[in-house]
Specification:
Layout (H helix, E strand, L loop, with lengths): L7 H24 L12 H12 L1 H14 E2 H29 L5 H46 L1 H4 L11 H20 L8 H29 L6 H5 L3 E2 L5 H6 L1 H8 L5 H5 L14
Helix pairs in contact: 2-8, 3-11, 4-11, 5-7
């Protein structure tokens, strides 16, 4: 017989199950030699939105679009994207299994250390930690630089009387100043108390969804009212070599664009050890 969700018996049963999950989590961490000290308050949505916002596929397309089109053209772009998605799904599944099995603070470099065993564990952990720290640091800087480049591109769109050439000292000064400011904001956000991060997750995910919806609505309208849509053959089957490299190598460079779009999907694994109240649910992000 199904219990009434509003009844006291139902509330007591939910509390009992949650307590049981917490005890199981603590026992699992103790067996792994780790004492839990982090406050687990993130929900499943928070875990998901971490990856969703870090991935930001719409912005990734904008930043890497010119690379994808130049390296192989339309045909290379969409076919390489399919291949990239397949291997990304495999990688995401592997990370999900690992972070569920080793839900410890440290995430990716700790997993590498465990995989290396007693002999190579420290070395593997150091290499991955160095790589991960460098990668995410440069991602933050490059993302702010890309955002500023698109922001300053509005100078041409709105015909503002200000230098728009990147070789001009005034343009470069404004570019540097705005980029430094946005990078500082991105860094300072990390100093906020963890309780504010949930609002950052909500805001970030909402902006990504809004950006996607606007692109799906206004971009086709703008195309239809200006230069018009291309034929199916032009849109999907044409190739282009804008790099000057041999055809095969030129095509391979398209993976730089498609892989760049899907960067960031491991973010949930990086925070699941300090987020989801039940570690057994960590992999679902």
């Amino acid at each position: 017989m199904q219990q009434d969700p509003s009844s006291q018996e139902y509330a007591d049963e939910v509390a009992r199950l949650r307590a049981s999950e917490s005890d199981s989590d603590a026992e699992l961490l103790e067996n792994l030699g780790y004492k839990p000290v982090l406050h687990r308050s993130y929900t499943l949505f928070h875990n998901f939105s971490t990856t969703f916002a870090a991935l930001y596929f719409v912005g990734g397309v904008r930043v890497t679009f010119s690379t994808g089109i130049s390296a192989g053209g339309n045909l290379a772009y969409w076919t390489s994207y399919i291949v990239t998605c397949v291997f990304t799904f495999i990688t995401a599944a592997v990370i999900a299994e690992i972070c569920s099995s080793l839900p410890l603070a440290g995430s990716i470099y700790l997993w590498a250390a465990e995989a290396g065993g007693p002999r190579f564990g420290r070395f593997f952990g150091f290499i991955v930690a160095w790589w991960s720290t460098t990668a995410w640091t440069t991602f933050c800087a490059s993302n702010t630089q890309g955002a500023v480049n698109y922001l300053l591109a509005e100078i041409v769109v709105f015909d503002v009387d200000y230098p728009s050439d990147s070789d001009h000292i005034k343009y470069r000064a404004v570019q540097w100043a705005v980029t430094a400011f946005m990078l500082a904001v991105a860094c300072i956000v990390n100093l906020l108390p963890p309780k504010f991060f949930s609002w950052i997750f909500y805001a970030s995910s909402s902006m990504v969804v809004l950006d996607f919806i606007l692109n799906m609505i206004w971009l086709p309208i703008g195309v239809a009212q200006t230069y018009g849509f291309r034929t199916a053959h032009e849109a999907f089957m044409t190739t282009y070599n804008g790099t000057g490299a041999p055809a095969g190598w030129n095509w391979c460079l398209s993976y730089l664009a498609t892989a760049g779009i899907l960067i960031g999907f491991d973010a949930s694994g990086n925070i699941q050890h300090c987020g989801i109240p039940s570690l057994a649910q960590g992999h679902r992000g």
